[in-house]
Amino acid sequence: MSVPFELGALPTLSRSTVDRQETLRTDPERLVSSWSQARVVLLDDTGRTPVAEGSSALATRKAIDFGTEPPADAVFLGEWEDTAYWSLPGCPEGDADTVRMAGSWGVVEEVPRADGEVWVELRGYGDRLDDTSAGLFTTAQALRNWRRQSRFCTRDGSPTHLVQFGWASRCEAKGHEEYPRTDPAVICLVHDTDGVNGSHVLLARQPIWPPDRYSVLAGFVEAGESLEGCVVREIREEVGVDVTDVRYLGSQPWPFPRSIMLGFTARADRDAPLVPADGEIEEALWVSREEVRTAFRNLGTATPIAGGASNLLLPGNSSIARVMLKAWAEA
Description:
The structure is a single chain. By secondary structure, the protein is of the alpha+beta class. 19% of the residues lie in helices and 30% in strands. The protein has six helices and 19 strands. It has helices at 28-33, 122-125, 131-148, 227-239, 289-298, 320-330, and strands at 39-43, 49-52, 61-62, 75-80, 83-89, 97-102, 108-114, 117-120, 160-163, 168-171, 177-178, 183-191, 200-205, 217-220, 244-254, 259-267, 283-288, 303-304, 311-312. Strands 12, 13, 14, 15, 16 and 17 form a six-stranded mixed β-sheet that branches. Strands 3-1-5-4 form a four-stranded mixed β-sheet, covered by helices on one side. A four-stranded antiparallel β-sheet has the order 2-8-7-6. The longest helix has 18 residues, at 131-148. The chain is globular, with a radius of gyration of 22 Å.
């Protein structure tokens, strides 16, 4: 008997082994004392970090190389196997050339290379990292993006400085403290009503996406709104379809700049007319399970969709959307 599908794997950016050690953030003496044996994750101005070519682990640096104590802009990420991890701004040293490699959505990108290391970005390389590295990179990226948007107090507009080793900011006028924000967003795989898991999935593309890129539907949760209510509203607004049987699947941090993607599935009538939201959705269409399976087998090559009007490229490997689609296709 068929059963409702579930995620077959942990989403790429949800993987982590690091203990965040929240209590250490307010224990400077103990945390600083471990600095000499700590490791540092570097992030450049675009959010890239170094990995050895072909490696699944971040190329971290010795913390002691940056001074005898954590610099003012050092951010504590957590501990793993008795080692503390931090992040700091950094960039390739010496003369860097470029190398071409697959990035998000399979698009080939040029990234810096120096001293046997390539500087990669999270969206395009996250799925190739081990669990520890994926967790460290995701956390470092999230905190970096938050800090870039939190340099002034939201209460009085005064400048802020980091406290708690990067996990809070304090305004210089009144001492107000603020903490890293995460914006909840729902992402929903809508399938038709054929059987338990349907035979077709509803996919759409935004006008700003590269050609042939399709994904499931997503949107931000509004103030005073439940997650399930957001799913129903977003699907109706984006493609004009009413959904039922909303069911939670899983979640993934998405620090671009500061979201948490909350994955759901729901059912809809495939005969209902699709009405893409003007300016938001360029095209929406139903795609069969076999077409999705074929797209996965083709690994980044555009797959013709029935009718010949469109081709199909699936979401990038670091996205929860890909995990959701793969689980549905295999159901």
